[in-house]
Design a protein that fits this description.
The complex is a heterodimer of chains A (about 190) and B (about 575). By secondary structure, chain A is mainly α. Helix content of chain A is about 80%, strand content about 0%. Chain A has a domain of about 130 residues: Four Helix Bundle (Hemerythrin (Met), subunit A). Chain A is elongated, with a radius of gyration of 19 Å. Chain B is mainly α. Chain B has a single domain, classed as Up-down Bundle (Cytochrome C Oxidase, Chain A). Chain B contains 16 helices and two strands. In chain B, strands 1-2 form a two-stranded antiparallel sheet. In chain B, helix 8 packs parallel to helix 10 and helix 12 runs antiparallel to helix 14. The chains are: A mainly alpha (about 190), B mainly alpha (about 575). The interface between A and B is large, with 44 and 59 residues.
Chain lengths: ~190, ~575
């Protein structure tokens, strides 16, 4: 379906392009969602020192590997932005596909990790720590999936040379997903 | 010129290739049509919520009676009715009508834009909202009945099906509320970005009509307060369906956590719905007093301060939940502080009225009634904000009457003010003034007769959420029952008078003569286009430009007592 943008979308009273302005507001709303969840977790964790016994069973090396994967995928997202900035849609699409590859690797590792943990009996109902562990990482994983799906559409458009400004926008979102993980990794894996 | 070309393409895409017939209205991305979708859905939900009140008020006044049209009310049904009455009136009436309908209709028109910045996200927002409305209604008819654990949904009652006995109903309720939040996040970001970026050339920050500012401040408040509750709702959903123990103290959880997450959203939410209603009232007061709004910047900053403070008052809902008394002191102070900016808004409106040339038209009556009734709601809130008095009043009908004196002016009086004022612009016809005034008095007088007795009952110790007071010897006396009957009869009168509104609404739509462009001789941009505005709001080569603020009424030395924003000096 063809869709022509209204005049409203093309105006910029603030000097910031509409899409970029919107994506920052999206991030603001996401910050409070994760902020509420992680704030609740930290308060509970402080009140329950015994949760450290459960946290011992998380695998810091797998978490570290996934951190590395996500950071690398953010790097390719930056490369995609640079390519789009120079008007090279096909190049941008390739870098976006690499970023999606990072997302898939992250999710694959995550599923294996969860599979091992669940087979050891550490399910979401095992205790308070595991409930927060699966909820926080699960909410983050949902964001990884959503970001990767949207990125696929943007990569398709970029390949055809359309809507190149969106490459930057999905990049901003992807960095946010990355930053959330930077908070989750120490809170769930390193703090034993 | 670039704008004109973009617009021509726009018109082409919609005029020749868009869907036709009824689909044109269902799949439209036009902000005015989406506003109407929100408004009519909200009105339908308001009728449902009002009829729920009719059923449970009948049970309270005449316990055990077979309510006409419903039958005998069982205790479970009673709980479900009061819970869903509250949920529907706030999430499916106040939010969609005040923010989504008026925001969608007014923001692009008042800032001189042709649409929202993201028309398709706007449509998606309504579609998600519509699904949530269907889910909340469906939850009433599933096995076990609708959720009955109050609109605040405190665990463990809301988390454990063995306590609430509505396994499916409570999960559907929670999912419906969560989807409603998603819809308003999508819509809210659209509003904020549209106001920031898409203003007409020449419109500076202090030239924006107050109602647009207030709706956008409300959208920001909503966005920043609802996040923790979304996280909390996921946790509650897992407690309900997966068997986690986030809110179960025997398994390392904490039920008070939900109260914090809920009220961290729930209190700012009061201001989320209050600000748009206040904004509507400000527009109407300035227009019908033919005076410049007193202290434009003061009003704006006051609203911002109210919004900031509203994030620091939530625990006044939890004074009896076992929170630290030192914390209760802090929240008492912040709660009493927030009454200062709200009082300031009231004084500003009085100052605007002072010395004005006032016309008591129907919209003006609604606007003035908003001030009078909201004042009672605000003043009674002082008692509840002070922890000492609140421990006595908590969970009584005093609280119930208090928040109905805030929410009724906001959601009902504010909405009627807005509809009667912008009806000519929305539908291109004038409303009937006589029917409008009959409806006004037939709504406002019974409203007071419903809720003043409930203040008395609450002060006498009548607790909320009780199915039948005849089971409580202290509350069963005839002097109490008489007050309950008065309130119920007044509700019936008020509901009947709403028929006058619907008659006026539909008869006015069928009128022959068209409304003029600017029937109230108002300054803001929406009055410079046709009634109703065409798709795109203005012809693409005649998009308005702005030269002054929105409230230049009775400017000294001018022949006209108004000075439209788009008129070159």
């Amino acid at each position: 379906m063809s869709f022509a943008k209204p005049i409203a979308t093309t105006r910029s009273a603030t000097g910031i392009p509409t899409g970029r302005l919107a994506i920052w507001w999206v991030l603001a709303s996401e910050v409070v969602i994760f902020g509420g969840l992680l704030g609740s977790y930290v308060m509970h964790r402080l009140g329950h020192p015994e949760w450290a016994d459960a946290a011992v069973h998380t695998n810091t090396w797998i978490g570290a590997f996934n951190t590395f994967v996500l950071l690398t995928s953010s790097f390719t997202a930056v490369l995609a932005h640079e390519a789009a900035h120079d008007g090279e849609g096909k190049q941008a699409a390739k870098y976006l596909m690499l970023t999606i590859g990072g997302a898939l690797t992250f999710l694959l590792v995550k599923s294996v990790e969860w599979g091992i943990e669940i087979s050891h009996g550490y399910t979401i109902t095992a205790n308070g720590f595991w409930a927060f562990y699966y909820t926080a990482a699960g909410l983050h994983a949902a964001h990884v999936i959503a970001g990767a799906v949207i990125m696929a559409f943007i990569a398709r458009d970029a390949w055809r040379g359309r809507e190149l400004q969106r490459v930057e926008l999905i990049g901003i979102y992807w960095h946010f997903v990355d930053v959330v993980w930077i908070f989750l990794f120490p809170l769930l894996y390193i703090a034993k | 010129m670039a704008e004109a070309i973009a617009h021509a393409k726009h018109a082409e895409a919609h005029g020749h290739h868009g869907p036709s017939g009824i689909l044109k209205y269902v799949w439209s991305t036009d902000h005015k049509i989406i506003a109407m979708q929100y408004m009519f859905t909200g009105m339908l939900m308001a009728v449902i919520g009002g009829l729920m009140a009719y059923v449970f008020r009948m049970q309270l006044a005449f316990p055990g009676i077979s309510v006409p049209g419903f039958g005998v009310v069982s205790p479970g049904e009673y709980n479900s009715l009061v819970t869903n009455h509250g949920s529907i009136m706030i999430f499916w009436v106040a939010m969609p009508v005040l923010i989504a309908a008026f925001g969608n209709f007014l923001i692009p028109l008042m800032i001189g834009a042709d649409d929202m910045v993201f028309p398709r996200i706007n449509r998606l927002s309504f579609q998600v909202f519509f699904v949530s409305a269907v889910l909340i209604l469906a939850s009433l008819f599933v096995e076990g009945g609708g959720f009955g654990g109050a609109w605040t949904a405190y665990p463990p009652l809301s988390a454990n099906a063995e306590y609430n006995l509505t396994a499916l109903g409570s999960t559907l309720w929670l999912v419906a509320v969560a989807l409603e939040f998603v819809a308003f996040l999508l819509g809210g970001i659209n509003f904020i970005v549209t106001l920031m970026n898409s203003r007409a050339p020449g419109m500076k920050a202090y030239d924006i009509p107050i109602v647009c500012w207030f709706i956008v401040i409300a959208a920001i408040l909503f966005m920043l307060s609802v996040g923790p509750l979304i996280a909390g709702a996921v946790m509650l959903l897992f407690d309900q369906t997966l068997g986690t123990g986030f809110y179960d103290p025997t398994r390392g959880g904490d039920p008070v956590l939900w109260q914090h997450l809920f009220w961290f959203f729930g209190h700012p939410e009061v201001y989320v719905v209050m600000l748009p209603a206040f904004g509507i009232v400000v527009e109407i007061i300035a227009t019908f007093a033919r005076k410049k709004l007193f202290g434009y910047k003061l009003v704006l900053y006051t609203a911002v301060i109210t919004g900031v403070l509203s994030f620091f008052v939530w625990a006044h809902h939890q004074f009896v939940a076992g929170i630290d008394p030192r914390m209760a002191n802090i929240f008492t102070v912040t709660t009493l502080m927030i009454s200062v900016p709200v009082a300031e808004l009231c004084f500003v409106i009085i100052a605007t009225l002072y010395g004005g040339s006032i016309t008591l038209s129907t919209p003006m009556l609604w606007a003035l009634a908003f001030m009078a009734e909201f004042l009672i709601g605000g003043v009674t809130g002082i008692f509840l904000g002070a922890s000492g008095a609140d421990i006595y009043f908590h969970d009584t009908y005093f609280v119930l009457a208090h928040f109905h004196y805030t929410f009724f002016p906001i959601a009902i009086i504010g909405t009627f003010a807005g509809i009667t004022y912008w009806f000519p612009k929305m539908f291109g016809k004038m409303m009937n003034e006589t029917l409008g005034k009959i409806h006004f008095w037939g709504t406002v007088i019974p409203f007071n007769v419903i809720f003043i007795p409930l203040f008395v009952l609450g002060a006498a110790g009548q607790h909320r959420r009780i199915y039948n007071y005849q089971h409580f010897p202290d509350l069963a006396g005839p002097e109490f029952q008489r007050l309950r009957i008065i309130a119920t009869v007044a509700l019936l009168v008020m509901l009947v008078f709403q028929l006058v509104f619907f008659a006026n609404f539909f008869l006015s739509l069928r009128r022959k003569e068209k409304a003029p462009r600017n029937p109230w001789r108002a300054n803001t941009l929406e009055w410079t286009t046709e009634s109703p505005p065409p798709h795109g709001n203005w012809p693409p080569d005649e998009m308005p430009e702005v030269y002054r603020g929105p409230y230049e009424y009775s400017f000294p030395g001018r022949d006209d007592d108004y000075w439209p924003q788009n008129e070159p000096a």
